[in-house]
Write a structure and sequence with these properties.
alpha/beta; six-stranded parallel beta sheet; globular
């Protein structure tokens, strides 16, 4: 057993790799720069985690969300893998301890947000103890042609060069050929190898529903939800989410809710047996519920990248699930408005910049404390805070301003009650509030003090969110707290430059590109060909005539009850035998994987890959096998059993009679394409030795 397989068993307790993993891991272990495009649930994380464990040094993992970092590190720590994260949820003392562990060689995977690489303390760590590898998670964020562009990602390539980081590996679930190319360019690794794998999802049924009016959408949602299944409904706006929650009594989730409200909504969705959640695209990244049976798009998305990523959250357990888009051409105008918002005009950008320079001169300070809402009435070309925000992001990208964090500003704190009594009452520090009062009160007494939330976190030994909760609870009781400036401060970096040197033609190109992506969604809605094949080709994967045999277009082309060829008859009987041997314990997704010989986390965990008939239909594509299973169920040779929410397949008496006889399968409702020659050649020589008693 080689070192990689030993590590797989030692750290993850797996005996086998999933499809595509081993090849990727060997390339990373060899020191190659790779960009891996694989759907969520295909095992991307292990591809970079495992090789880091068998090499000297450590890797930094660039991750966009605190929740993602925490989930990854918690999972690794449960496996006793040395990993940690640095972010604003840590206290200062926790951050110091993590840095010390890195310097001592006790950490193999260090998770950070891209913005942290600009902080002096972290740059000092990179200088004194550079990592061997930079892992860029959610790498589509690095490309302005991607659907979640994030400016801080743009500096990663330069930072890797500055600190001489030998290897960069990028991972994402969705990236078009243009985005893949841009990832390599922005990371300054032009020879980076691109690996695309695992995008075909034959268990997902894609369907488009024409709903030109709002009442059409409401009526269809009402009809769909009558059958209870774990469901996500994506809507384009917060208003639409709130209306869905109010009209249908479902869980709501969007960025306008408080942190506590969103956490509560997420917990309810993850822990309820059959939840329905309405959400904007703020929901999803890091969500790992495998048994989502439905994803409904109440509005069409602005790109196929966003659609496939969100729809792909259905059926991650490999079992059948449905992905419906409720299509109305009017939704296009919402996305066109958002495109205009995210690509500000030269007039707007120049106007915002002039306001900032005027305010800086008036206050004799290059740091300006104005919220986005404050700037709107001062800017003739701006109609909303969102427009001002888009202009500021552009000015930041071109180096004219720097946006400060909210934790940087100082609030005013003063204990109102007798400090001696407070310290005596809370000296035991049994709660977070008591710890805060004891430690902070002991340091400041009754004096009014200007202090940041981060400083209070360090003094109290609580993380920043805990400090904020304590301050909200105690304000007006035993202390007074005047919060710091509520917005992000804006610092002028080149205040003497009155004229902007910005390539606005590039912004125009980006706007046109986003409109083209929107047009691709419209083409998807209007196509008569296989919907999943359409998406795969959009992402640059060669479908070679492959069809999912499951979407509304494919199923609309089914032949009604046609006779089977000799090879198809043999395949159908083979599936009946497999279902019989599995004894009604598994759903169509696992049965399909067993027959096709596809190893997934669930298959490995259930040890189904050790069955003697695993892969016996390996020359048949999974989509074809799923079509056979559906057709056999329609013909009453197979039936569903067990929990209706998570149905398994069992063989019926009619199926048993056919399996035991020498007769042929009756006409089946199969997609009207004959088996390929290689399938026929394989099937004509099948033997039933796998099922001998």
């Amino acid at each position: 057993m080689d070192l990689i397989r030993q590590a797989l068993k030692q750290y993850f307790n797996f005996d086998k790799f999933l499809d595509h993993q081993q090849d990727i891991i060997r390339k990373i272990e060899a020191g190659n720069d790779v960009a891996v495009i694989m759907p969520t649930g295909a095992g991307k994380s292990l591809c970079y985690q495992l090789p880091m464990l068998i090499r000297p040094g450590y890797a930094i993992v660039i991750s966009p969300l605190i929740s993602l970092m925490k989930d990854q590190v918690d999972a690794l720590e449960r496996r006793r893998i040395p990993a940690a994260f640095l972010n604003s949820a840590n206290t200062v003392s926790e951050q110091r301890d993590t840095v010390k562990r890195v310097l001592n060689g006790e950490i193999k995977l260090l998770y950070v947000a891209p913005e942290r690489l600009d902080l002096p303390a972290f740059r000092n760590l990179l200088q004194n103890c550079p990592p061997h590898t930079m892992i860029v998670d959610e790498a589509h964020c690095i490309s302005q042609w991607g659907h979640d562009f994030r400016p801080a990602y743009l500096r990663l390539g330069a930072i890797a060069g500055e600190f001489k980081i030998p290897q960069i590996c990028a991972f994402t679930a969705t990236a078009t050929p243009m985005v893949r190319k841009d990832i390599a360019v922005q990371l300054k690794r032009p020879q980076m190898e691109v690996i695309v794998a695992g995008f075909r999802r034959p268990n997902l049924r894609f369907e488009l529903c024409n709903t030109p009016k709002a009442e059409d959408k409401e009526a269809l949602i009402d009809k769909i939800l009558r059958e209870p299944k774990p469901t996500i409904i994506y809507a384009a706006t917060r208003k639409a989410v709130d209306e869905l929650a109010g009209n249908f009594g479902v869980i709501a989730y969007h960025a306008g809710m408080s942190d506590a409200e969103r956490t509560c909504a997420q917990d309810e969705f993850m822990n309820s047996p059959c939840p329905v959640l309405a959400a904007t695209n703020a929901f999803g990244m890091g969500i790992d519920r495998p048994d989502v049976r439905r994803v409904i798009h109440y509005n069409m998305t602005g790109s196929l990248e966003a659609y496939y990523q969100e729809a792909g959250r259905a059926g991650r357990d490999g079992e059948e699930a449905e992905c419906r888009m409720l299509f109305s051409y009017a939704d296009r105008y919402v996305h066109e408005f958002m495109i205009d918002l995210n690509n500000p005009s030269p007039e707007l950008v120049n106007s915002v910049y002039s306001v900032l320079r005027y305010e800086a001169a008036r206050h004799r300070s290059n740091t300006i404390y104005l919220t986005l809402e404050d700037i709107v009435p001062l800017t003739a070309a701006a109609r909303s805070a969102s427009q001002v925000g888009s202009a500021l992001r552009l000015l930041e990208k071109y180096g004219y301003v720097a946006r400060g964090g909210r934790a940087d500003a100082r609030g005013k704190l003063c204990f109102a009650a007798d400090i001696g009594k407070l310290l005596a009452e809370h000296g035991a520090e049994k709660t977070q509030r008591s710890r805060f009062i004891s430690r902070v009160g002991g340091m400041f007494g009754n004096n009014e003090t200007a202090v940041t939330v981060e400083e209070l976190s360090n003094i109290a030994g609580l993380n920043i969110e805990q400090v904020r909760r304590v301050l909200r609870t105690l304000d007006g009781d035993c202390l007074r707290w005047e919060p710091p400036f509520a917005g992000s401060s804006t610092e002028l970096l080149r205040p003497d430059e009155a004229e902007l040197e910005i390539d606005f033609s590039e912004i125009s190109d980006k706007r046109n590109f986003e409109l083209e992506k929107l047009d691709q969604v419209l083409k998807y809605a209007q196509t008569s060909r296989c919907r999943q094949s359409f998406i795969l080709e959009y992402f640059g994967e060669d479908s070679s005539g492959w069809q999912c045999e499951n979407c509304d277009n494919c199923r609309g082309n089914y032949a009604v009850g046609r006779e089977l060829s000799k090879e198809e008859d043999a395949a159908a009987k083979m599936l009946l035998r497999i279902v019989s041997k599995l004894n009604g314990r598994f759903g169509a997704g696992k049965i399909c994987a067993v027959a096709a010989g596809k190893i997934s986390p669930d298959i490995a965990a259930s040890r189904l890959d050790e069955l003697p008939f695993f892969g016996v239909l390996g020359d048949f594509k999974p989509a074809r096998i799923m079509a056979f299973l559906r057709a056999l169920e329609e013909a009453n040779y197979l039936a569903r059993t067990g929990n209706p929410l998570y149905p398994c397949l069992e063989i019926t008496p009619e199926g048993k009679r056919l399996m035991q006889s020498k007769g042929t399968v009756c006409k089946l409702n199969l997609y009207g394409v004959s088996p390929k020659n290689k399938e026929a050649a394989k099937s004509s020589g099948w033997e039933w030795k796998f099922f001998s008693k």
